């Protein structure tokens, strides 16, 4: 399955955010992308520990034919670099994951995490300020009591919109190893955080305690052969969560069964195909991302070469397997040499679960239509055509290219990779990050 | 850049069946050797200022272990009497030679950082225990033991540990090559690290000392035992200069 027949997709480029320079500062490299639950806000995190939130342009939101236009709403420094004096090691400020909380009032809340510490941020707007104080001048100085002869009540006057981000909670010192996932529970009170060997459960209101719910650390570290790579709560059942491992298996756990969920309730594992066995079989089977469908009925896993859709009722094998970039199978040795084989790609579901997407190399990303059983390879680049024009689809061929929209596998640029992606919860708008640019694509509606 | 993969050759397909089998066997051996070299290199490369990625190290180690199991299986099948078959010796000698050439870093940090445990005791007493453990029937665990027990992963600047010095190459088992300190095989160094406060030695200092010991020529090769033969007084003096005491 390799590309549309007509060479054109329904997607078109809406916006590109970020600098155009070839020289990218390390701190500007985007490391997290996430829409909020309404799709109105889009948050990105970078290696410098900053978070930039974009807001959907209000007018364009109501006109589906218009481009999905997102503008900067708030920018703040979420995490700072730290130094672990005990181990003489730096703790990177790079944002690993961002997860939004469902909105309860006018303010927006999100969780952001680096390798060690999770923070709850409150983003609130201020567009009015009180003026006409009785006891204070406009500049804040207090008036002399003897000059007060009248009484007046301050009134709110409009001011320029100010968006403030303030840290409300800091959840620290609960992870010995690097945090790879956070997931907010459907109960809207708890969330989980997972590192290489443990999964912890937190209550949002309490920063001084967390409950360990999964611990796969062996008594002897010499016996360690498997680590946790991703974890997520079920979108509807607050007692259910999954975690994926470096050996390609996903375990579903029920927190009602026991306090420590080391015994899984379900184990999703596809038996290995002996004909494709290689030195790299285990590495390419490592789960880089796991995402539940919106319905909660299915689960999607991403490993190095494939996307797999699992029915939660069937553990023995996935119900659908999609090849992301199967042409890399013969290049695994080189990819091992240049470390690309360890790249962790994310994946995401479309709003109605009928489509899924994930990133690849050469700034390609892959769209899979589950219903129509079609897929497309699209490119995120400045030359993706003018906004509004449909993207052309690409095809990667083994030898040298023969047609216009083809590229030889040996010409792929492995330094340009799309690891982080997010799909608008309702509309067909996707956001993805190349090295330092944020791309927003919208489905073209005719 | 496609690395050391063997290029597809039209001639290969035209050869008769027997030669094709031999060719593919050589290809397999060659690729296994490449993966072995790469894995050793990746494990022994200094990770930088941050903490090494545990998931990556686990995956590389598992790959290495798989190759080791394969090689051990071939060894048992081909020549059960001799201590080690030439094929395997070649694999590891080649790997070691390449590591020596490519790896300027000194010493081996632990494969898995024991970050939430107490600092292991780095004395020669511990390592003499490891010597016994290396002859264990289960070499997999024992070699991991020797790494972890001589763990110095708390700091990148503690490259040396006490060594055990096997008398000759023939005494080594397969696992010694794979998992114990490579530079201790290549250089008959004295187990002096525990007596010096080597844990305070930084990378720069090591290179300085190596350069000092080699007559000022700066080399990024593994430091030789000449480094260790520096006078203790000179080391103290240098430390004083650095620390400013």
UniProtKB/TrEMBL annotation, chain A:
Family: Belongs to the phosphatase 2A regulatory subunit B family.
Molecular function as annotated in GO: protein phosphatase regulator activity
Name of this protein: Serine/threonine-protein phosphatase 2A 55 kDa regulatory subunit B
Organism: Phoxinus phoxinus
SMART domains, per database record: WD40
UniProt entry keywords in alphabetical sequence: Repeat, WD repeat
SUPFAM superfamilies in UniProt: WD40 repeat-like
Keyword Ubl conjugation: no
Lineage: Eukaryota, Metazoa, Chordata, Craniata, Vertebrata
GO CC annotation, single: protein phosphatase type 2A complex
